[in-house]
Amino acid sequence: MSVQNLTAFDPFADEGDPLGGNQDVGSQQNYLHIRIQQRNGRKTLTTLQGLPKEYDPKKLLKAFKKEFACNGTLVDDEEMGQVIQLQGDQRVKIANFLTEEGIPKNTIKLHGF
């Protein structure tokens, strides 16, 4: 009795690159990411990253704090650049505020529960 399935046959050898040479698949460039992080108990933190260069993050943070009646800060990250952090769950409010300011809705990604 001979076992034929143990030969060195690679079924994917002729496929080549599964992504078709497109290196941008899964990249997070050109998107605004609005995320929520759980702190302790019921406390949450909302982060906004990937802001375009033409927007001043300090002025935007000041407008967010005044509009949403919450505290916030600007954090420098090595990978993502400047990240805006706001207290509480402000994801929908931030998305609505940014779309009213002229940022297309398809470039805003909402993450979280």
Strand content: 25-35%
Instruction: Give, in spatial order, the strands making up the sheet with the most strands.
Output: 3-4-2-1-5
* Helical run tally: 2
Q: Give the SSE string.
A: EEHEEHE
Low-confidence stretches: none
Largest sheet: 5 strands, mixed
- Give the overall form: elongated
Rounded to the nearest angstrom, the distance between the terminal CA atoms is 56 Å
Organism: Leucogyrophana mollusca
Keywords: Initiation factor, Protein biosynthesis
Protein name: Translation initiation factor SU
Task: Give the tags.
113 residues; alpha+beta; five-stranded mixed sheet; 5 strands; initiation factor; protein biosynthesis; Translation initiation factor SU
Describe this protein's structure:
The chain has helices at residues 57-68, 91-100; strands at residues 32-38, 44-49, 72-77, 81-87, 108-110. The protein has a five-stranded mixed sheet, with helices on one face. The protein starts with 31 loop residues before the first strand and ends with a strand. It is an alpha+beta fold.
